[in-house]
Specification:
Helices cover 62% and strands 0% of the residues. By secondary structure, the chain is mainly alpha-helical. 24% of the residues are buried.
């Protein structure tokens, strides 16, 4: 195995292009993400990138895949309610580190299979907490909408009075709403399931 020659660029790959695109989106926002900007960051021409991607649309799809594959898989510790809480808090943390990701997910144009393990883990915990499959699916959608809504709606439009101002800790606000939603969805199911 040979060492890279000093000053020589790493060979281009789809993974390197996606990692660079993710950094641009994280630092400068999705609006700044162009094929030209990715090429500039990599020190190459746009034509070189087109050997690995077709256009910006594909780049956004690859970013959605990259975010989805890194969604938490859930933990095996604690009861179903605690596992659900930790699962969704971890998802919030992951997506909050990439503020552009919720926008890509919410636009609905890009669906990726890589998100399936996240969904399966949440559905399994909901079923263990006593929800039948149709209710578990509805609860999952409600939790998903809470997560995306919280990440997308950080601007206080219509809520400018100090009483409605979002706190300094968005995670704490999300955790509060998540706990209330889980209380409403699960009620006493988990407790009843343990006693019965």
């Amino acid at each position: 195995m040979t060492s890279p020659v000093p000053g020589r660029r790493r060979p281009l790959s789809r993974a390197l292009i996606v990692a660079t695109a993710r950094r641009i989106a994280d630092e400068d926002g999705l609006g700044a993400l162009t094929v030209r900007q990715v090429a500039r960051r990599l020190g190459t021409g746009q034509a070189s990138l087109y050997r690995h991607i077709t256009d910006r649309g594909q780049l956004l799809s690859l970013l959605a895949e990259d975010v989805a594959v890194r969604l938490p898989r859930g933990t095996g510790t604690g009861g179903p309610r605690e596992r659900l809480r930790e699962h969704w808090l971890a998802a919030h943390g992951h997506l909050a580190r990439h503020p552009w990701a919720a926008r890509i997910i919410a636009d609905g144009e890009r669906t990726v299979d890589a998100a399936a393990p996240f969904a399966e883990g949440a559905l399994a915990a909901l079923a263990e907490a006593g929800l039948p499959p149709d209710e578990a699916a509805r609860a999952y959608r409600a939790l998903w909408n809470l997560l995306l809504g919280h990440l997308l709606n950080s601007h206080p439009i219509g809520h400018t009075s100090p009483a409605h101002h979002q706190g300094d800790d968005p995670r704490a606000d999300f955790a509060w709403a998540l706990s209330r939603l889980l209380d409403g969805v699960l009620g006493g199911r988990e407790v009843c399931g343990r006693r019965g």
